[in-house]
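From the thread on structure requests for the teaching lab: each student submitted one protein with a one-line request. Submission from student K.M.:

"Model Helix-turn-helix transcriptional regulator from Candidatus Scybalocola faecigallinarum, tokens only."
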Amino acid sequence: MKDIDFSRISSKLKELRIERNLTQEFVAQKADVNTSHICNIENNRVKVSLSTLVQICNALDVTVDYILSDEYAHPDSALEQEVLKELRLCSPENKEKILKIIKILQ
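Reply posted by the TA:
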């Protein structure tokens, strides 16, 4: 059994936070931890605990499955769930556009 790649998890969390234009302070407040702890997690100085990971994912509005998808033997299902979650937020018109794009890419 391979070890969990905490550095990849840390990177994903940081990338998502930055993509969503959220500060470490905001995430820390939502996750009920210190800002320095978020910094240490993002820079892979500490391993994130499961409870903190769940709280951070809630703050980032992302599933834990998506963050951990690289750890699965078959990561596609986690990615598909994240795509479906985002798709539910789209208008019917945008869903049609997305479907056309998917068909083009296949």
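TA comment: The helical segments are 6-19, 24-31, 35-42, 50-60, 64-68, 76-87, 92-105. The two ends are 33 Å apart (CA to CA).
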